[in-house]
Amino acid sequence: MNTKLGKVGKRLLGFALMLSITVVPLLASSHAEAPLISMDRFADNTDTYAFRSVEPGREGFVTLIANYIPLQEPGGGPQWFRFDDTVLYEIKIDNTGDGVEDVWYQFQFTTQTVNNDTVLGQSTVNENGVISSLADSDYNMPQTYIVRRVDRFRNRSGRILASGIRTPPANIGPRVTPNYEQNLGQPAVYPLPGGGKVFAGNRDEYFYIDLGVFDALNLRSVGMSGGIDTTKTYNVSTIAIEVPIQDLTRSQTVPASPTASDAVIGVWATASRRSTRVLQADGTQRNEGVFQQVSRLGSPLVNEVVIPLGLKDAFNAIPPSVDGTIPRVVQAVTDPEIARLLAAVYGITIPPPPRNDLVQIFGTGIPVNAVTGPNYTTFLSDGIAHEYLRLNVAIPPTAIANQNRLGLLGGDVAGFPNGRRVFDDVTDIALRAVAGGTPFTPATNIAPNNTLGDGVSFNPEGPLLTRFPYLLPPNQGNQPRPSSTPTSAARAERDPSKIPTVDEGGFLK
Q1: Domain assignments of the chain as residue spans, ordered by start
Q2: What is the pTM of this model?
């Protein structure tokens, strides 16, 4: 066995034993991509995003988003969903290419209780039962948090950027949380030193996918329409931070051009727990020891559909610096099982291994080449593969009206795999990339390889916000979800004129 992998396995065994004697929430969802994290919902990192801000006047900033706690039922009260006070949530940036974080942002949460005598939870009737502001006494279990910036070479002890700021409550319903976004959502966007912003709280789960893909690729459609957005009307817990470009680059300046040596950064998010959890006789818990990473997410779908089952827990526990030193992890990318499954199910020809095209997309970044031209690159590597999102901060953002859901494959150089925007259809992009349906593999860049999709090409719940934190407000609890709506019940639909659609080219109509 690889020595490094063996050490990881020993650490994971200890963590597994710890889980076996504790009570951990369970949700069997698509986001729960590894055995251990599927039993630890509140530390489960579901999606990571990194893009140049598109809000007018904010183009000099980068928006970083990490979502946690998958597939939240909006009506799941009376506690609803909040960040775990015992988890260390982090967004990490590598700007030197060695797979080690050079700058990272830490988020730690604390929940208080106003009234312990109520039978309710996050809200109660301390005054009139209506939560009209973040400071309202009827917000019975307010959660505050600390934002800390750490620099690998300049300030390893960290600098607190904000503390004691509040997350908004859940969008409980029209009686308890009326005018949610105006009263609670936007007031939870806080300024940071240097002109940045931060937000933490519930948002709509905007990632769209037909989860029929896990029924042995039994998709309802393999095109751009005909599928079902399985995540529709669920919520997610979002950490979003917007920082000046120069705060993230190795030179601490705005790069001069897309091919400058400091233009590309690597981004991923993690969640960590204390190594020991003790259940006490009075029903409380005590968490002790060092923080152990239990969840990790950079590029979408990598651990979910590329890394083999026996390594998924290990992949969640290791840093990107180790990825390229574990032969089985490298093999999972150079000869992915999902590609062979696509070939078997759909009768297509796929590129033979080694899949160096996938290594570039996910492991090293794309160097300057004849396909993408002299002004495009996401290359960031010390010669070893490190899996994370790569964002070229010198490539200007694409205006919302001109964004293409297929990112680079749709001619939009500001989209995935150059970072990841919330709008990007990463499922279709990944399916086509794995099938070899891209210009980087010209022999297989033909139909149906380069037209594959899951039948869902946009989020049907409405266009994204045009301002930070971009994600839509959380879905309201006191509304029936489509999957549970009785046939006789009337359901208020969104204004059809505000529901986005995309054309065959991948652009918003």
Answers
A1: 3-466
A2: 0.90
